[in-house]
Amino acid sequence: MRIVIAIGGSVLLNDYDYKKFQEYSEILKSLYKEHELFVVVGGGVPARDYINIVRGLNGGEAICDDIGIEVTRINAKILLIGLGEFAYQKVPHNFQEAIEYSSSEKIIVMGGTEPAHSTDAVSAILAEYIKADLLINLTSVNGMYDKDPNKFEDAELISKITVEEMLDFISGKDVKAGTYEFFDMTAIQMIKRSSIRTVIANGYTPKNLLKIINGENIGTTITF
Q1: pLDDT tens, 52-88?
Q2: CA separation, residue 51 to residues 63, 64, 181 (Å)
Q3: Per-residue b/e over 18-50, b at no fewer than 16 CB within 10 Å?
Q4: What digits encode the pLDDT tens for the residues 171-222?
Q5: Domains in the chain, start-ordered, CATH in brackets?
Q6: What is the DSSP string of 146-212?
Q7: What's this model's pTM, rounded to 2 decimal places?
């Protein structure tokens, strides 16, 4: 399959060490021969910390986005170190470069692209751009919930949700730089118009990536 994998920055940098990068590198290497892999990594807490500093200096949202994008690209470079010869050793700055680099038949790893596009949006646009068979979003919780599971103990996991239901759910959410949601409006619109098979799951357990690709029902599946 041709697969786009979005890995949240908070997943990779939860403990501020190399271990999650290493775990994902080994799993991606194991998938390399059977699948064409495109990985998009987020900025996580470091990106949000820098964005808050820029806001304190009265920087505009576009500048905040630009700083956040730079952090995602640093995270992408770190993952490239772990992947070594299995990956193309340059971070694409846009979707055309991602396509060009994929001619190497190696794993492609990128971060953000431009202001107003979260890395979730980037992964969805990339999935549409390359006509991916599957989009996997690996985040900090088990999937999509009816409310924030970090704030509400009675939050319930949604195992399946339609695109329309998801659009209603995220409608009106804050879209400032560094804001965390499962998907922003741009991402879900890309998924909707191209009917991209999408799964949201917990990225703290890297083996969940293998489970999804092997067809196990975990996390949240977006249906049409």
Answers
A1: 999 999 988 889 999 999 999 999 999 999 999 999 9
A2: 9, 5, 16
A3: eebbebbbebbbebbeebbbbbbbbbbebbbeb
A4: 755 544 444 455 678 888 889 999 999 999 999 999 999 999 999 999 999 9
A5: 2-223 (3.40.1160.10)
A6: SS-TTT-TT--EESEEEHHHHHHHHTT---STT---S--HHHHHHHHHHT--EEEEESSSTHHHHHH
A7: 0.91
